């Protein structure tokens, strides 16, 4: 065990933990900051993302003894950060488990780039996995937080139109398949009737 002094969300805190303890467990178990999540433990999913001196890092693999700089967690955003508002406006979360890490990666991006394009967003977020498939909503929320609300609304309308067109096509295909099935049944019934009539005539001739 050793004493470590950290700057966390603007406060100076001292903890007694082993130097190789991952920052994630210091935040969650020692300091009670449970907004940062454990996902994989091997820096592959991004659920544990926090900031150290403004850079997005995976706290599950960063030993407390190697932390240099101020730590900022999801709690440090305060609940009214533009990204947090955009997340709510775009209805991003599904199960929600990965979202604190997603937001922290996005916050680090917007601290560097005022109006990132989709390529920059994808690059910044590629280390954060979402098993619920909310990547499209996450991108829209980041653009909204960066001041791209009008573009986001237009994009949403376009996506809604595309979905409506896809549904219409599906309905048309279903109707066509139904009509084809009805025609096939009619033809089958007609053939059966013809065969039956032929057998009757043949029987009468004998």
Short description:
This protein is mainly α and 206 residues long. Helix content is 51%, strand content 12%.
Oligomer: single chain
Biggest β-sheet: strands ordered side by side in the sheet: 4-3-5
Q: Show unreliable segments.
A: none
- Rg, rounded, reads 29 Å
What does this molecule look like?
Helix content is 51%, strand content 12%. The protein contains six helices and five strands. A hairpin with a 2-residue loop joins strand 3 (49-52) and strand 4. The termini are far apart. By secondary structure, the chain is mostly helical.
Question: What keyword list fits this structure?
Answer:
three-stranded antiparallel sheet; 51% helix; 206 residues; 5 strands
Topology:
Blueprint: E1 2-8, E2 11-17, H1 23-30, E3 49-52, E4 55-58, E5 71-72, H2 82-89, H3 99-112, H4 118-125, H5 135-145, H6 149-205
Helix pairs in contact: 2-5, 3-4, 5-6
């Amino acid at each position: 065990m050793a004493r470590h002094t950290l700057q966390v969300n603007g406060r100076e805190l001292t903890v007694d933990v082993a130097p190789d303890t991952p920052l994630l467990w210091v935040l969650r178990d020692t300091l009670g900051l449970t907004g940062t999540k454990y996902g994989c433990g091997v820096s592959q999913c991004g659920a544990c993302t926090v900031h150290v001196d403004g850079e997005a890092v995976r706290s599950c693999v960063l030993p407390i003894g190697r932390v240099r700089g101020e730590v900022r967690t999801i709690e440090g955003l305060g609940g009214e950060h533009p990204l947090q508002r955009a997340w709510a406006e775009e209805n991003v979360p599904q199960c929600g488990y990965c979202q604190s890490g997603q937001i922290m990666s996005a916050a680090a991006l917007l601290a560097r780039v005022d109006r990132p394009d989709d390529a920059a967003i994808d690059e910044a977020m590629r280390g954060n996995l979402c098993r619920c498939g909310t990547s499209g909503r996450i991108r829209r929320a980041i653009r909204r937080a960066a001041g791209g609300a009008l573009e986001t609304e237009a994009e949403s309308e376009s996506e809604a139109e595309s979905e409506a067109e896809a549904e219409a096509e599906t309905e048309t295909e279903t109707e066509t398949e139904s009509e084809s099935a009805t025609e096939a049944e009619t033809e089958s019934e007609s053939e059966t009737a013809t065969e039956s009539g032929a057998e009757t005539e043949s029987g009468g001739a004998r």
